[in-house]
Amino acid sequence: KLAARTHANEVSNAWMMRASNVLDESSVIFAALPLFHTNALLVTVLAPLLRGQHVVWGGPLGYRDGPLFENFWQIVERYRIAAMSAVPTVYSVLAQTPVDADISSLRLPIVGAAPLPPAVRDAFEARTGVKLCEGYGLTEGTCASALSWPEAPRPGTVGQRLPYQEARTVAIDEATGDWTFLPANEVGTLVLRGPNIFAGYLVDTGSGREVHPDGKIRGGWLDTGDLASVDADGFIRLAGRAKDLIIRGGHNIDPATIEDGLLEHPDVTAAAAVGRPDPHSGEVPVAFVTIAAGSELTADELEVWAAHHVPERAAAPKHVEIVPEIPLTSVGKPYKPELRRRAAERAAHDALAATRVGDQTRAVLVDGAVEIHVPHSAEDDAIEEVLSQYACTWQFINKGNPDEH
């Protein structure tokens, strides 16, 4: 979707960040996220320029450039970097990179765009002696809506709302769509209001393009789609992305609880959990992980580890797969649609293992959603009986050639 933002949205949001910033005009900011992304553009370019601060650019590859990490601490010392913004995967790498320079200038390493695993935070802070500052925002809110500060940290939260914004949680009635504002500390859908909120999405009407809120805005409040609670002091604690929740037998599981438990293992370098279709529970949690070079850790050992370190028994992954790398978006977030596709394909293969087309069945992404494609065969009736038990979208292919297989 194309989120239509105005210059006023961007200037307002940049000013909000600068108005509450602890850095002065002499501070230097490091920019290495893709400049086409709102985080890099607002947090590390427009906001610093409003204060007349210098910006050091990390090059066209930015954090995707391997040699950058080898020289990162020396870059911090050379330019006296005071602030940076990156995703958790970047800080995970830096937490394993020996500090070979004077990094005393670094005061405001901001992390956002994806949940920060406690293990990554602890490892980075132990390595550097610098507190990570979690932030929160989304494109529909231009960029940033909350940020924590080194002098007032509250671990486990993404900080407090920025000036000139409001943050609340609501319960949304699934039948009517009505909103009910919730009291402090109660988990609900996070909604935001302020001059940074976009007007809507750019929609092609056939005769032209129009900006339409698409049900995301009500009374000036933006439905973020994120689950959260806001405490009495205004600190925001995220509870997961509504669309990323794993729903096992009607029970909601936050994938972050699984990922955090796996990341506590010293050999695990990254983890992402998704739901896999299941005929009995609707979905069951599964996890994909990467491990340190040279580690002999096995998937079976990780499943046992997870059973003891994931706090909720129902959330312990039914299957853990060790992979060379976890697919990421352009800004370093785990690309979960692809992981859901892999999980669904494995479920289909397992379910249809007794048929001739089991290993030919494929899962594909259609507009970000997973769809199972099964070749036609003489076993269509049996296949349909099996797949009808799964709460997932599927269809036969090669309809014109039922005897092809």
CATH class of the largest domain: Alpha Beta
Instruction: Give me the CATH architecture of the largest domain, please.
Output: 3-Layer(aba) Sandwich
Helix count?
Answer: 10
Uncertain ranges: 400-405
Domain count: the total is 3
If strands are numbered along the chain, what order do they take across the biggest sheet?
A: 3-2-4-5-6-7-8
Class computed from helices, strands and strand pairing: alpha/beta
Helical content band: 10-25%
Apparent shape: globular
CATH fold-level assignment of the largest domain: Rossmann fold
The CATH H-level superfamily of the largest domain is ANL, N-terminal domain
How would you state the average pLDDT, rounded?
Answer: 87
Quote the distance from N terminus to C terminus.
Answer: 39 Å
Assembly context of the chains = single chain
Tell me about the largest β-sheet: 7 strands, mixed
Total count of strands: 24
Radius of gyration: 23 Å
Keywords:
disordered C terminus, 405 residues, GMP Synthetase, Chain A, domain 3, six-stranded antiparallel sheet, alpha/beta, 10 helices, seven-stranded mixed sheet, single chain, Rossmann fold, 24 strands
Question: What would you note in describing this structure?
Answer:
Helices cover 25% and strands 29% of the residues. The strands form 6 sheets. A 7-stranded mixed beta sheet has the order 3-2-4-5-6-7-8, with helices on both faces. The two termini are 39 Å apart. It has 3 domains: 3-243, Rossmann fold (3-Layer(aba) Sandwich); 245-322, GMP Synthetase, Chain A, domain 3, CATH 3.30.300.30; 336-397. The protein has helices at residues 7-19, 38-50, 66-70, 72-79, 88-94, 118-128, 255-263, 299-309, 336-351, 380-387, and strands at residues 3-4, 28-31, 54-57, 81-86, 108-111, 133-136, 146-147, 160-161, 166-172, 179-181, 188-193, 200-204, 209-212, 217-218, 221-230, 236-241, 246-248, 251-253, 268-278, 282-291, 319-322, 362-366, 369-375, 393-397. It has 405 residues and is α/β, with parallel strands linked by helices. It has 10 helices and 24 strands.
